[in-house]
Structures are given as C-alpha cells and as structure tokens.
C-alpha cells in the first residue's frame, strides 16, 4: 500500500470508528497512529483528513445524498460513506488532491475495505460529484463565509 494511501486508510478507520462508537476523533486517531507508526508527515495528513471531514460530515453527506439518489444515505454502508466523505473533502473542500487522484485513492480504499460492489459505487458517486465540482466548491465557500460571519462576495 502506498504511503499516502496508508495515511488515508488510517483516517478512514478513525472516521468509521467515530461513526459506530462514542469515541472522539482525537482518541481514535491517537490510538490508530500508535498502532500504525506512520512517518510524521503522513500522520499529519491523516490528522488533516480526520479533522477536516469530521466537523462537516452533515454537509458532505448532503452532497453525497444528492448524487446517490437511488441509495438513501442511511442505506449506504458506514465504510462506503466515509470513503466518499474523504474523497469529497480532499478535492472539493480542502483542494489538496486533484480530482482524479482522490477518486483513484477512494477506489483503492473501496477495494480494500468495501464490498465487491463498493469500487463501482464509489467511482460513480464521485464522478457525479466531480462533474459539479465548481458548484460544490462555491457552495462550501459560501457556507464557510456565512459561518464566519462574513458576507459572501458577489462577482
């Protein structure tokens, strides 16, 4: 497994654990990092994902639900939801990963952690989200500006 894929895998496991238990992301991440022994920069990447995704899960889920209408969000497996959340966060919110790379990485995680149908499902949903990337980024920026008490700029 490539090193950044391993870092994403750690973040995925942490988010999965937080979805299923009352564990805090900080507790879960520290335990997972202690077990995995990632290089410091990879541990930081895992940390960025966890603390980037976790606070905005509801927002990410809203976009995922719009692009997987035949699958109500509560019927998407916890692992699949978290794979989608991570990829969407990486390319639409943080902008730290090119879209194609984020999708390919999500498919790799899906092959490792999901069911046989997960890679195709993840690819389809993320492809639909990528097609509306500009719109999604603008919406996230507007929401962030509103939360910070700033009025969004009109251009």
From TrEMBL:
Protein family according to the UniProt entry: Belongs to the NusB family.
Keywords: RNA-binding, Transcription, Transcription antitermination, Transcription regulation
Molecular-function annotations in GO: RNA binding
Signal peptide coordinates: none
Domain of life: Bacteria
Protein name: Transcription antitermination protein NusB
Example of a GO cellular component annotation carried by this entry: cytosol
InterPro entries named in the record: NusB-like_sf (IPR035926), NusB_fam (IPR011605), NusB_RsmB_TIM44 (IPR006027)
Encoding gene per record: nusB
Function in brief: Involved in transcription antitermination. Required for transcription of ribosomal RNA (rRNA) genes. Binds specifically to the boxA antiterminator sequence of the ribosomal RNA (rrn) operons.
Domain called NusB/RsmB/TIM44: residue spans: 6-130
GO biological process: DNA-templated transcription termination; transcription antitermination
Database matches in NCBIfam families: nusB
UniProt-listed Pfam families: NusB
């Amino acid at each position: 497994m490539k090193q950044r894929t391993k870092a994403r895998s750690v973040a995925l496991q942490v988010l999965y654990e937080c979805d299923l238990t009352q564990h805090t992301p900080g507790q879960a991440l520290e335990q997972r990092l202690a077990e995995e022994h990632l290089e410091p920069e990879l541990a930081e990447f895992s940390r960025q994902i966890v603390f980037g995704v976790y606070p905005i899960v509801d927002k990410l889920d809203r976009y995922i639900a719009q692009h997987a209408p035949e699958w109500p969000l509560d019927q998407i497996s916890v692992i699949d939801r978290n794979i989608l959340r991570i990829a969407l966060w990486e390319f639409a919110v943080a902008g730290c990963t090119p879209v194609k790379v984020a999708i390919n990485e999500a498919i790799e995680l899906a092959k490792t952690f999901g069911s046989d149908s997960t890679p195709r499902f993840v690819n389809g949903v993320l492809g639909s989200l990528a097609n509306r990337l500009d719109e999604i980024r603008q919406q996230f920026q507007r929401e962030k500006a509103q939360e910070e008490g700033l009025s969004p700029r009109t251009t």
